């Protein structure tokens, strides 16, 4: 097996980043913000609390939306690709969108959170993943 990918980028390649080490936890979020942000039923993301994220290129392209009471949702202003969420007070990155990794991040989703908000048009599969009505505790 190849080493897990710790590098990522946006769709146009303008924003590039790397993690200090591979993520250890990932899951699906079914909250309304993720649905609206992605245009899909959920968002697959790797939690990276405590892992340093280093921007290699495109810091000027990173734009963030700060929803009331939530983490900033950051994306590339050139191509619109969703990259990560971060704490609005500290700037610490909390999660990286799985699709932003350049290759296999080496972690698989192990939970589904905010399942009480799942959309009717795409039922949650019976995949055996741990489920949480609201946020998975950190």
Which descriptors would you attach to this protein?
single chain, 138 residues, Metal Binding Protein, Guanine Nucleotide Exchange Factor, Chain A, eight-stranded mixed β-sheet, three-stranded antiparallel β-sheet, 1 helix
- Find the count of extended strands (DSSP E, 2+ residues): 11
Order of helices and strands: EEEHEEEEEEEE
Shape: globular
Mean pLDDT: 93
Number of domains: 1
In terms of per-residue confidence, which ranges show pLDDT below 50 for 5 or more consecutive residues? none
The number of distinct helices, counting runs of at least 4 residues, comes to: 1
CATH architecture: Beta Complex
- Structural class category: mainly beta
Main beta sheet: strand number and arrangement? 8 strands, mixed
How is the secondary structure organized here?
Blueprint: E1 7-9, E2 16-19, E3 25-29, H1 32-38, E4 43-47, E5 53-57, E6 62-65, E7 72-76, E8 82-86, E9 93-97, E10 109-113, E11 130-131
Can you summarize this structure?
The chain is mainly β. 5% of the residues lie in helices and 35% in strands. The protein starts with 6 loop residues before the first strand and ends in a 7-residue tail after the last strand.
């Amino acid at each position: 097996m190849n080493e897990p990918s710790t590098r990522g980028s946006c769709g146009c390649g303008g924003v590039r980043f790397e993690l200090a080490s591979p993520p250890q936890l990932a899951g699906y979020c079914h909250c309304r913000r993720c649905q609206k942000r992605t245009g899909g039923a959920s968002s697959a993301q790797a939690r990276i609390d405590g892992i340093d994220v280093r921007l290699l290129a495109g810091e000027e392209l990173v734009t963030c939306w700060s929803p009331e009471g939530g983490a900033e949702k950051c994306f590339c202003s050139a191509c619109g690709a969703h990259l990560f969420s971060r704490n609005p007070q500290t700037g610490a990155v909390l999660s990286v969108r799985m699709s932003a990794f350049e290759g296999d991040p080496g972690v698989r989703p192990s939970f589904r959170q905010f399942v009480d908000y799942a959309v009717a048009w795409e039922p949650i599969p019976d995949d055996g993943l741990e489920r949480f009505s609201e946020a998975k505790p950190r």
